Amino acid sequence: MTTTLCRTVVLISGSGTNLQALIDGAARQELPIDLVGVISNRPGVAGIERAQKADIPAEVIDHTQFESREAFDEVLREAIQAYAPDLVVLAGYMRIMTPALVGAFAGKMLNIHPSLLPKYPGLHTHRRALENQDTHHGSSVHLVTEELDGGPVIAQSVIKIDADDTEVTLADKTKKAEHTLYPEVVKWFANGQLSFVQGTVILDGRSLASPIQLTEDIDIA
Ligand code: GAR
Question: Measuring from atom 9 of ligand 1, which residue has the nearest CA?
Fold first, then answer.
């Protein structure tokens, strides 16, 4: 029996620990994905080395070399399309995308964002959770739409904020939980369990009323 693997392109801007979680999951054959390409908009980042080490084609398209967001996104779109992906995974990709780029991969582009969306779209999410004295924090995996961090949320990892947490410790804990969350959602997509109909998430044939919460080993009051 031949299994068709989900052709997956990963976009990064930095350390690529979420990319690594996908590389490891695929290597352990827990994820039915073929990581066909990694693209970074920043040169010299650790994520590129992670891809090269795993023999995944990796390239840098440096956004600072383009005159406009539109010009950069046009080249990025072509680079992604050259891999003929079934799925595009944003893993710490830190550029706002044009509608043309988002539209080119409608229904098959996922992002992970370090907050319990709809709380804290944008930057400095850990700081904002601490400043607001939230009791819990986490990350969300969502479908990418034209609205920044605004597409339908599929699943979230939830962590407890401790009294002695700082922005750094909270970022660490949040990221650690992402390494379970993101592969899980990617697996659902690659298995064909996940789809989107008019802004609604369909998982295993049922529309999700609210995001799946992954809270394994996490102490929730
Ligand atoms: C992750 O925590 C991810 O949630 C965040 O960047 C980090 C990337 O880490 N993404 C965003 O803030 C997107 N708005 P990584 O490069 O080690 O995977």
Answer: 92
